[in-house]
Amino acid sequence: MTRSNRILNRVILAVLGLVLIAAAAYVAGGSGLGLPNIPKPSVGVLWAIVGGAVVVIVLSLIWILSRGRGRIRHLIEAESADGSVTIDALLVADLVGDALADQPDVVAVSSTGFRMRRRSVLSLRVTARRGADLARVIRAVDTAVEQLDGVLEQQLPVLLHVTGAVRATRQVR
Fold this sequence. Notes:
By secondary structure, the protein is of the alpha+beta class. Helices cover 45% and strands 24% of the residues. It has a four-stranded mixed beta sheet with strand order 1-4-5-6, with helices on one face. A two-stranded antiparallel sheet has the order 2-3. β4 (106-116) and β5 form a beta hairpin. α3 (89-99) crosses α4 (134-152). The protein is elongated and about 75 Å long.
C-alpha cells in the first residue's frame, strides 16, 4: 500500500462487502429458507443492479491490478553507446554491508529498491545488535552511503530503517 490510502482501502472493502451481503440476502429470500419475503424488483431495477455490479467489479479489478507497483529490482539502468548497465538492489546491499563489515554493532544489511515519483529510491534495512550505539550506526551508514554514491557516480535517495537484533541466549543445565 505504498501508493494508496489505508482508509480508502477499508471503505472500498466495506462497500463491496455490503453489496455482496445485499445480493446474498436477495437470492436467499426466494430460496425458501424461511427468510422474510423480499418483493421482486422490476426489470429496470434488475438491470440497474447488474450495471452497478459490473461497475463495481471493473473498478475492483482496476484497483487490484494497480496495487503493488513501485518495488523495483534494478536501482540504476543506464544506456550508452557501448551497451547498457543495470545495478541490482542486492548488489547495493552487498556494497553497503561490506562498508559496514568493520562495525561491531551491525549484524546484517538488506536493501530494496522502489520507484517513487519517477526516481529510484533505496530502502536500507540495517539490523543492529541489542544495546548498540544508534548514533554511531547511523553515522557509519551515512558514510557507507556517501561511498556508495561515489561508486555509482550519482546520488540515490535513501530510506534507512534500523532494527534491533534478538540476542541469542544459551541455556545452561
